[in-house]
Amino acid sequence: MGVRESRASSEGISGILEYFGMRLSLFPFGLGLSFCYTYSTQRLVFNDVEGIFQVVQYLGTALSCIVMFFLSRRAGENLSTKRGALLVLPVLAGAVAMMLVVPSPLSNSNVVVLALGAMSGMFIGWLYLVWGSFYKQLDVKPAIWCVLGSLVLSAVLKLFIAFLHSDVIGAFACAAFPLLSMGCWWIANKERPPSKLKVERFSAKTLYTLKNMGFGVMLFAFAIGLFMSMGLQVFSLPIEFRIVAHVVTVAVGVSALFVAYRWKEDFEFSNLWFIVLLMAATGLVVAGFGEGTMGSLSIAIFTAAQMFVIVFYYLALADVAHNSSYTSDMVYGFGWSLYALCMGLGFLPIHVVTVELNQLALSLAILYLLLIALFFFMRVHQSRELRLFADLNPTLTGDRLTLLTEQIDRLAVKHGLSDREIEVILLYAQGRNRAFISQELFISENTVRDHIKNVYQKMRIHNKQELIDIIQGI
To answer: What φ, ψ does residue 202 adopt, rounded to 5°?
Structure first.
């Protein structure tokens, strides 16, 4: 029995890897080490200058990203991956981390700490841009595997970072992350699978279709920063609640990978955004029950939600970079500068407003921001050509589409399918989900479901796999 279970488990893992087009390796998850550099510098900094350190670090990230955007646009190529930068900047990033973490006269000086914080933020922006060059070369399925794997790896490592302190050991751990991340980047590029799907969907004329998503992410980032500046900082949480945040992140990340594999073409990855909003709203509701345990739990939930915003946004930028002629430095430089800027501005009001801010009023303001963010994202363009993650459900063209149409026409004659049922099944057999079919044919999702159910009854089958088997047998 044990051998059989082991074989089944092995086949399951190989099946998942085959679907995502990746091999079993941790190196493509090196982006997670960059996440850990961000987290550990904020968590272990000896002097956070009463919370201003995070503001300066986020603004430093925004500055470096937008500067790289303009430089890359002018040069027409990536500058973040120049050999000199790859060799020197990780070492400098590690040195800055050590100066921030180890108690010393330098770390006691607010001016020095803020300057080092801005520098660490610039290095963070650079790390994200370097990994962006890797993701630009990936199709959407491998990108999903790598981004979610990076999220899970970073959350697991943060469980150990939670027990570190502002001392020499913590400093060496913090300094190691950028070096290890770049080592993983070198190897991951050698292991990278060849790109199979690449469509120039996004250009100067079509990028406007993503403006709603950009506004939604910016509002959400500002809301997260504002919420986390209201009360307990995440790094001041009792350790059990920090562990809860990381465990929840691991659980949801693994679940998202599993669901993407099980549902395959029926999986609408954009729905991850709504999961993030649900997590954030839950954290806000929990915060309403007061401080203490419930307040700590709400911060933990918001922390997990923030990581999924980062993952979703990073993956969305990867899809844009992969399906456009823009350099990855341009796509990530512009996109990530907006996120980092709004996060930094979200942390700022608590430090600059002199009057005491009402907790209830702030909670309502954050809820309002979340509702607006939801509104923006619900208006994201969903056309076949311009929607995000369209390569999860590639459109058949040419001879393949002609063959499928002929097969379904024969099927319709044999089983007496109506014209509308033929239209639905033609899209359904191409891997389109019910939401897409309803938009394409201007009918409700319930109507699509009814048509599919009627086809199953006429053909005396029970699931999509049986339908595909019959079509392929014609």
So the answer is: -105, 125
Which whole number is the average pLDDT over 58-80? 94
**CB of 430 closer than 8 Å to CB of 404:** yes
For 28-191+201-392, the fitting CATH number among 1.10.287.370, 1.10.630.10, 1.20.1250.20, 3.40.50.1000 is 1.20.1250.20
Q: Which residues contact 67 (CB under 8 A, 6 or more apart)?
A: 333
In our burial notation (b when 16+ CB lie closer than 10 A, e otherwise), range 248-260 reads bbbebbeebbeeb
Percent of the chain that is helix, strand, coil (3-state, to 5): 80, 0, 20
Q: Between residues 235 and 289, which one has the greater pLDDT?
A: 289
CA distance 236 to 357: 20
Q: Global pTM? A: 0.78
Domain boundary assignment for the chain: 28-191+201-392, 395-472
Domain 395-472, classified CATH 1.10.287.1080, yes or no: no
Question: Are the C-beta atoms of residues 116 and 93 closer than 8 Å to each other?
Answer: no
